[in-house]
Amino acid sequence: MSRCTGHCCTKIDLPLSPEQLQAALDDKSLQDIETIQPMLINGIQDPLAPEWWVYQCKHWDDRTGNCLIYPNRPKMCSDYGKTYPCSTVGCTWTDAKREIART
């Protein structure tokens, strides 16, 4: 695979409920919250780890596997996997970087 397929965009794990995210946005208590909170949709409490909530990025296109704002995506998105490794099992971006390094 020569490109990212967005595994991390479809399953974003956070230790914050939708209400806690809104409160953090209201009081600006978390770094980058003004960027992060509006991007998240479908907050579902993880049944195996109830202290965690699973979200999806609203800019992720399920049909094409593309980021709808890719050229203008936030720095936290463009840095993901570069600054620190992706922890998503099956990360195709990590595989793509390995493939490029071998050539």
Explain the overall architecture.
The two termini are 14 Å apart. The protein is 33% helix and 17% strand. With 103 residues, it is of the alpha+beta class. The protein has one domain (7-102). It has helices at 7-10, 18-27, 33-36, 75-79, 92-102; strands spanning 12-14, 40-45, 53-57, 60-61, 66-67. It contains 5 helices and 5 strands, in the order αβααββββαα. The radius of gyration is 15 Å and the shape is globular. The mean pLDDT is 81. It has a 3-stranded antiparallel β-sheet with strand order 1-3-2. A two-stranded antiparallel ribbon has the order 4-5.
Summary keywords:
103 residues; alpha+beta; two-stranded antiparallel sheet; 5 strands; globular
What is the C-alpha radius of gyration, as a whole number of Å?
Answer: 15 Å
**Range of strand content:** 15-25%
Oligomer: single chain
Major β-sheet profile: 3 strands, antiparallel
**In terms of per-residue confidence, which ranges show pLDDT below 50 for 5 or more consecutive residues?**
none
Q: How far from one another are the termini?
A: 14 Å
Number of domains: 1
- Chain-averaged pLDDT: 81
- Helices, by number, come to 5
* Count of individual beta strands: 5
Shape field: globular
The chain-level structural class is: alpha+beta
| Order of helical and strand elements | HEHHEEEEHH
Strand order of the largest sheet: 1-3-2
The proportion of residues forming helix, as a percent range, comes to 25-40%
Break the fold down into its secondary structure elements and pairings.
Elements: H1 7-10, E1 12-14, H2 18-27, H3 33-36, E2 40-45, E3 53-57, E4 60-61, E5 66-67, H4 75-79, H5 92-102
Antiparallel strand pairs: 1-3, 2-3, 4-5
